[in-house]
UniProtKB/TrEMBL annotation:
This is Thiamine permease. Keywords: Membrane, Transmembrane, Transmembrane helix. GO terms for cellular component: plasma membrane. It comes from the Bacteria.
């Protein structure tokens, strides 16, 4: 039963409870607190988190990417570049998962501390589109594998793939994705090992596979290994994936998850080992149409038959659970914030499936490749700014509430000029360099973007003011409860109870309590801004 806490001055009393609201738990089974802070009761243990995140281990894209870069720079340089990229991903994601786990925030909510309330909306739509494009690629791999084995029109298999993929993400990470990936992981491991052994038996061992020279003549503006490293920066979006999965981790598992699940150990296998396997398979298996994701898939299915088909379908279904889950979550977040349209995540998952199918039918993969290159600049800039923010927060307590990240709609400004400026300028430079279509632009665009974004924001923070991060307002519910992580407060608008970390007072409705989702309403934001201006003048 709900209880009331003694009111503060003339404020209406908070309606609080110490246990989860059953209605909120029911919503979370579908939405995973997409617009809310994840409470500790919804966190996942070590094993469950590892199985859920292992969906990123199985992308055929990374297997073929390694072989592709090896054909450009030679095997030796490719291996060095992949090793450095794997180490970089492991190190950065240690800090990403730590911030995500301690805050319980999504990338979208966390980005409000980087760019402000309005600026963060841009992050959600870019992120959602990126996840959709990855879903299209991996979904097409499954469709091609099915066509290679059974025949028939590719459009039929597009429909089958989407129809089978969407239901897998309707239950979210904790309820469904964790369990699906628990069964798919052994299939992936067996398939990868089996593909290597099978290819060696059928086609013979290639003793020079690790020392092959480049087979494609390409003008490079840097050493081969640096070119490879820059190519892998183009998939920094997986760091955003890490953040959103890690928010469901348990605080006590931060070190384990940081080193094993999301960190160096994971990327050693995901990028380095998978990369070596990709290089080896392409060196051993004859490629009729050159190195491509589709060519490798068809070769595996033709070589291994039904076992190869099961391997491809299982592994790519596994990675697409992550793509579809995050794409649907961020469409939900974007439309809730910008258009105030509150629809359940399962419906957005269906929308994502329809968009996927449309893109597949249009066959615009050349456009998708170009988009992924340009969005890489935008996301690389986000990663650099996020890292600077984390370092800044570790040295200086930006927020007055024990170092908590402020993200609530009524307590963050519309824009953080330092973060938003760094993001726009650096992304613009990166996109401009890519648009030159020159060897220099293709190699250096993303490293320059990363350095520029981090440097501009670090410089801006030397002149930062508290108003960049928070709106100064009175009547914070966080001050009114003993434990902001365990006390649930009822929202006057939706009548549901969420942990006090995300709750605010609504000056447009007699200062009653309001949750972070309902606080996206325009009327509340206007009233909160007016209250902040009045407080500053006072």
């Amino acid at each position: 039963m709900s209880t009331t806490r003694e009111s503060k001055i003339s404020l209406p009393p908070l309606v609080v409870r110490q246990t989860d609201d059953p209605h909120v738990v029911s919503d979370a089974a579908r939405d995973d607190y997409a617009e809310h802070v994840v409470p500790k009761t919804w966190r996942i243990g070590r094993a469950g988190m590892a199985f859920a995140w292992s969906s990123l281990l199985t992308a055929m894209f990374t297997v073929v990417l390694s072989a592709t870069v090896a054909s450009v720079v030679g095997t030796a340089d490719a291996i060095i570049g992949i090793a450095l990229a794997s180490a970089t991903y492991g190190l950065i994601n240690y800090f990403m998962q730590k911030t995500a786990t301690t805050s319980g925030l999504t990338v979208g909510l966390f980005s409000r501390s980087l760019f402000g309330y309005s600026g963060a909306a841009l992050v959600t739509i870019v992120y959602s589109l990126t996840a959709i494009w990855f879903a299209v690629f991996e979904g097409s791999v499954v469709a091609v594998a099915l066509q290679a084995y059974f025949g028939g029109p590719i459009q039929l298999w597009y429909v089958v793939v989407v129809a089978l993929s969407v239901p897998l993400v309707l239950g979210g990470v904790r309820v469904w994705i964790e369990k699906v990936n628990k069964w798919l992981l052994p299939i992936f491991v067996a398939g990868m090992v089996g593909a290597v052994i099978w290819a060696t038996v059928v086609y013979g061992y290639a003793p020079d596979w690790a020392n092959k020279p480049a087979t494609i003549t390409t003008a490079l503006a840097a050493p081969g290994w640096l070119y490879v490293y820059a190519v892998y920066m183009g998939i920094f979006a997986t760091m955003m994936y890490c953040f959103d999965f890690a928010r469901l981790g348990q605080p006590k598992d931060i070190k384990f998850n940081g080193w094993i699940t999301f960190g160096p150990v994971f990327y050693f296998f995901s990028y380095f080992v998978n990369g070596l396997i990709g290089i080896y398979l392409v060196a051993v298996i004859p490629q009729d149409e050159g190195v491509s994701e589709i060519g490798v898939v068809v070769s595996i299915v033709k070589m291994m038959g039904i076992l190869g088909l099961i391997f491809i379908v299982a592994t790519q279904t596994k990675i697409n659970t992550a793509n579809l889950y995050l794409a649907s979550s961020y469409l939900e977040s974007f439309f809730a914030q910008v258009f105030k349209l509150k629809l359940p995540r399962w419906l957005w998952a269906v929308v994502v499936g329809i968009v996927m199918l449309g893109v597949m039918f249009l066959d615009v993969f050349s456009f998708l490749l170009q988009w992924l290159a340009y969005q890489g600049a935008i996301i690389v800039a986000w990663v650099a700014i996020a890292l600077v923010q984390m370092a800044y927060r570790s040295r200086k307590n930006v927020n007055r509430k024990g170092g908590l990240i402020e993200f609530r709609p009524g307590r963050v400004p519309g824009a953080n000029p330092g973060g938003l400026g760094a993001w726009i300028i650096s992304s613009g430079v990166g996109i401009a360099l890519l648009a030159t279509n020159s060897p220099f632009g293709g190699t250096w665009a993303l490293p320059i973007t990363f350095i520029l974004a981090g440097g501009i924001y670090a410089l801006a923070l030397l002149f930062a003011r508290p108003a960049w991060f928070t709106l100064r307002r009175p009547n914070d519910p966080r001050d009114e409860v003993e434990d902001i992580w365990e006390t649930r407060v009822q929202c006057h608008n939706c009548k549901k109870s969420y942990i006090a970390v995300e709750m605010d007072r609504d000056p447009s409705h007699e200062n009653q309590a309001i949750c972070s989702l309902c606080a996206n309403a325009h009327g509340f934001r206007v009233a909160a801004k007016h209250e902040a201006e009045t407080t500053s003048r006072g």
